[in-house]
Amino acid sequence: MPRFYCPQPLVAGTTISLPEAVAHHILVVRLAPGEFITLFNGEGGEVQASLVSVAKRSVTAEIRAQVAREAELPYCATLAQALPEASKMDWIIEKAIELGATGIVPLAAQRCVVRLSAERAEKKLAHWQGIIVSASEQCGRNRLAQLAPLQDFSHWSRQQDLHKRVLLTPRADQSMADWARHQPPQAITLMVGPEGGFSETEEKAALAAGAIGLSMGPRILRTETAGLTALATLGALWGGM
Q1: What pTM was estimated for this model as a whole?
Q2: How far, CA to CA in Å, does 32 sit from each of 19, 27, 89, 209?
Q3: Domain 3-67 CATH class label
Q4: How far is it, in rounded angstroms, from Cα 241 to Cα 237?
Q5: What integer is the mean pLDDT of 68-91?
Q6: Mind listing the pLDDT tens digit for each residue in 101-136?
Q7: Average pLDDT over residues 2-9
Q8: Domain limits, CATH 2.40.240.20, in the chain
Q9: String of b and e for 168-193 (b: at least 16 CB within 10 Å)?
Q10: What pLDDT sits at residue 172?
Q11: Is 24 helix (H, G, I), strand (E, B) or coil?
């Protein structure tokens, strides 16, 4: 059954007008009145709805039943990713959502090749938010991951929150898998550097601020591989995969 993100109240027994983007998609795939779709608003759960009218500029649907179904990890997992080159960030975000990440924090680190002005950063955030929505539609998640504004790594790494922070670095003595086997599931933030990794200064500052340095094993993983592998490792060891 086709799934669509619909950011509005979804109450059984009501008929609603679907957002323009959803309506366009329904027209493109040639769905007809009477066919069933699944809608979710990002706040948890989903609803089954049937199409009432399908016109060029307007699509309406009747909400038939609410379904209390979730596909979330049993812990919060945030991916703090330093900006990689080209369009790698798009792919990283898409796959992180599929693997259950509950938060995405884009980071500007010393070795980042990509530098975004305030205007470009705003456009990128809107683009990445769209990727989060489409990935959630595809993989069956009913809650949207939180996307933070672009952060300067040096400033962000000194902030304190309730999440355990893990700095992924090949210089660590302990691996992520070995550490996670001896830890209970818990809120965690994974910090991944750009091509070339975090600088020595950045790593020392993050560790001094309370981060734990862990490696991904004996092989050096690319920036677009490291965080996703860490998410998959945690999912396998802590549940949710």
Answers
A1: 0.93
A2: 17, 8, 36, 56
A3: mainly beta
A4: 9
A5: 95
A6: 999 999 999 999 989 998 999 999 999 999 999 999
A7: 95
A8: 3-67
A9: bbeebeeebbebbeeeebeebbbbbb
A10: 95
A11: helix
Structure tokens at 52: 């009432």
Question: Which of 52-66, 88-102, 139-153, 157-171 is the least confident region?
Answer: 157-171
Distance CA 30, CA 14 (A): 23
- CA dist list (Å): 90 to 52, 86, 87, 143, 205: 35, 9, 6, 19, 28
CA distance 189 to 107: 13
By the 8 A CB rule, do 150 and 123 touch? no
CATH number of 77-238: 3.40.1280.10
Q: Over pLDDT 70: what percentage of the chain?
A: 100
- CB-based contact 193:108 (threshold 8 Å): no
Pair 167, 191: CB distance under 8 Å = yes
In the chain, list all ranges with CATH 3.40.1280.10.
Answer: 77-238
pLDDT of residue 1: 83
